[in-house]
Please model this.
Amino acid sequence: MTNSTNHWLNFIDGQWCDAQRTTDVYDPATGEVFATIASANVDDVNTAVTAARACVNSGVMSDCRPAKRAQLLQRISLEIHKIVDEAAPLLSRENGKTINEAKDEFLMAARYFEYYAGITDKIEGRSIPLGKDYVDFTYYEPVGISAQIVPWNFPVDICARALAPALAAGNAVIVKSPEITPLAMTWLATACQRAGLPNGALSMLNGPGREIGAALASHSDIDQIVFTGSVATGRSILHAAAERAIPSVMELGGKSAAVVFSDADMDQLLSSVRYGIFFNAGQVCSAMSRLLVQRDIYDDVVERVSALAQGLRVGAGKDDADLTPVVSQKQQQQVLQMCDQAVAQGARLVTGGKAPENQDGYFVEATVFADVTPEMSLFTDEVFGPVLAITPFDSEEEAWTLANATDFGLVSGVFTRDLARAMRASKALNAGQVFVNEWFAGGVETPFGGNKLSGFGRERGQEALYSYVNTKNVAIRVSQ
Model:
């Protein structure tokens, strides 16, 4: 994983490997470099693919009795639990999130392996009746080599949510880690190694996306691509995948709206706003980035949300602050530019909108804009920072129209005590997941994925498992 000089390595075919070049890793709370990691090249990609293909061809994963694979995943989960206290501070430092949030992320990773271990021996086909002269049945085969390109905001969580079902189905996996936050992920590889995962079943490479990610996406021996990230990068990957007609799972972000009716429970709403947009400094694909509020409570909600934002303590993750830094200087500049643009377009800045004066790192104040209209960029474009846009509405129909008036469709939400209205919302909102009275409700068990530009395919839950298998049908004529 690392050596005494705080230099971290790639994991290829069961071995920790250095490289001729390195990537600097920054502490976003200070802006200082605190570690380096080996930066892979295309030859390393080819080595990883060769090892993965040898693993697939050997059948060491796919031919293994499913109950044995389940035991392997359970061991990985247990190994992750063992490393949490040592690994979480590293994730906190490279990403900026609090140590408790980093611990929760590792525990979520362990939960993925535990959950999919429970399904591994239940991937069952079916018998199809074709008459007395035939026996016909289906079964599932692993896709082969899954290339998984992981983003920087929740690297451990998002890596585990794809890695666990892929291994459960008997595949080999090559993970491309994010350049900005590559270190803590190596602990997942360590957990897999300690649990006895066969060589070649997992490789983890760090390196530039335009080189390493592109090499994986276009490699002739990759069978599937899983990607979480920007629309622009997703399109590029899909072009490469289309050249070889290989399946992909894409999660490309969102501009998600919470619809707040006048009968909403204010305590539930404010709790959800606290975590929906300010958790992880708003760097969440499914963040509550828009708040649509019924007009008769609009001023009250704006005031309450503004007070909430102003009361958050800004600081480093190690200090357990309420609002931690964004991940990089580039991200900070992008968020602040979008705030300036919102003001120029006529949105009312209620609080925030700038970098705190007393912080050295990549911080952005908790920001609330009111009177945001559908014509404004802040209404339609993903900020990926602690910036909330609030818009009034009058009728239920107008609320649904406003909620759906973006190119994204990842998640949506509704806050109301009216069960019938909540059920109407679940139909009317064009999103892969609808939250009612609690943002981020659900868990590992619930399918997650988007509509429209938010991508396609589902992760988490039983649905995710079937992204990592192919259906085979066997039709047998038995009569003489």
